[in-house]
Design brief:
The chain is of the alpha+beta class and 301 residues long. It folds into two domains: 3-121, no CATH class; 125-289, Phosphoenolpyruvate Carboxykinase, domain 3, CATH 3.90.228.20. Helix content is 25%, strand content 29%. The chain has six helices and 16 strands. The radius of gyration is 20 Å and the shape is globular.
Length: 301
C-alpha cells in the first residue's frame, strides 16, 4: 500500500547514512516475535521507541510477544529516528527512508513495512493479499491486490452478517486453517489514495477470534458495468492466480504450494468479474448458503 513511497537517502546526505544496522544495540530497544519472526526494534530515545512499539503492535493486531533478542540475532531489524530539520524516518535493515515531518504518515509507512517483512519471513504461515470473512464457521477468502476494491467487498459482506477476519491478509497455517488478521478496515473515498480506518463494529460486525477451515475461494476483479457470472475453476488454476499475491513465496515455494493446496482442496472455488460491491456480496452469500451443510458441526462445506 505505502511500500511504493519508500525512498532511500543518497550517500551524500551525510550522517544519517553512517550507522550500522547493528548500532541499534547501543540505543533503547525492544525485541518481539510474531508468526515465528524475530524482530529487533531500536530508537534514538525512549519516546521514539514507544512510537515504534505502538506501531508494531497495531501493525500485527497485537499478535506479538516480547522476547530477549539482540539485533545480530534477529530475523529483521528496524530503527526509529528523528532528524531535527527533516523529521521522522526509520531504517529497514540499515537502509534509511526519506524523513517526513508528519508523525501520522511516518507511522503509517512503518506499520506497512513491519507487516510486509513479518509476512514475508513468517515461519509455518502463508500470507496472501486477501479479504477474509467467515460464515457458519467457514472462511470466504477473496484474494486481491491493493486498490482492487477488496475492502469494500469485505465491508458489504460483514454488513450482511459475516464475521470479519481481514481486509488485508488471509493468514494460512500448515494444517489448512485460515487465521484472523482483524485490523480495522482501511477504507478509501472514491478516487482517493489516503486511507481512513473503520472499525468492523461500526458496520455491525464482530471480529473473528479463532482459525477456521476455508469454505469458499472467490477470485473476482472489479470492472464497471460487468455482470456477476461465476464459474467454478480447478484448484490448480486458482493456485496459479494466488501465487503472485502470496507474500514471500520465493523464500519457500514448496511450502507455500503445499499450504495453498491443503487449505483450498475442499473449498468451492469461483471466478468472475464483478461490478458494485453490495450486489456482489449478495451473490456470494447466496452461493455460499447453497453449499452442503455438515449435520454434525453445522458448518458449511
Amino acid at each position: 500500500m505505502f511500500a511504493d513511497k519508500v525512498q532511500l537517502f543518497d550517500a551524500s546526505d551525510g550522517d544519517v547514512n553512517n550507522i550500522s544496522p547493528f548500532d541499534g544495540e547501543q540505543l533503547p530497544d525492544f525485541a518481539f516475535e510474531a508468526y515465528g519472526v524475530r524482530v529487533h526494534l531500536s530508537a534514538d530515545n525512549d519516546e521514539l521507541l514507544e512510537i515504534g512499539i505502538r506501531t508494531a503492535k497495531k501493525a500485527l493486531v497485537g499478535r506479538l510477544k516480547e522476547i530477549e533478542c539482540s539485533g545480530r540475532d534477529a530475523d529483521h531489524r528496524f530503527s526509529v529516528h528523528r532528524d531535527s530539520n527533516r523529521g521522522y524516518y526509520f531504517r529497514d535493515e540499515g537502509e534509511p527512508t526519506t524523513p517526513t515531518p508528519d508523525e501520522t504518515d511516518f507511522c503509517r509507512l512503518l506499520n506497512t513495512m513491519i507487516r510486509i517483512q513479518v509476512a514475508a519471513k513468517a515461519k509455518r504461515y502463508v500470507f496472501i493479499h486477501s479479504g477474509v470473512v467467515a460464515v457458519n464457521g467457514r472462511a470466504i477468502v477473496l484474494p486481491g491486490d491493493s486498490y482492487a476494491g477488496k475492502t469494500r467487498l469485505v465491508a458489504e459482506l460483514i454488513r450482511r452478517g459475516a464475521v470479519y477476519f481481514s481486509d488485508e491478509y488471509a493468514v494460512l497455517d500448515e494444517y489448512g486453517k485460515v487465521h484472523p488478521f482483524e485490523r480495522n478496515l482501511s477504507m478509501r473515498r472514491d478516487g482517493g489514495h489516503i486511507p481512513y480506518e473503520v472499525e468492523p463494529e461500526d458496520l455491525g460486525a464482530v471480529r473473528g477470534k479463532i482459525p477456521v477451515p476455508a469454505g469458499m475461494l472467490v477470485l473476482t476483479k472489479y470492472e464497471p458495468g460487468s455482470n456477476w457470472k461465476p464459474e467454478q475453476i480447478s484448484l490448480g488454476q486458482a493456485i496459479l492466480e494466488m501465487v503472485p499475491k502470496a507474500i514471500g513465496v520465493r523464500n519457500n515455494p514448496e511450502f507455500y504450494l503445499t499450504v495453498l493446496n491443503t487449505t483450498f482442496k475442499s473449498a468451492t472455488i469461483l471466478k468472475s468479474l464483478r461490478s458494485e460491491a453490495a450486489e456482489t456480496a449478495e451473490r456470494i452469500l447466496e452461493a455460499f448458503y447453497k453449499l452442503p451443510v455438515s449435520k454434525d458441526s453445522g458448518c458449511i462445506f
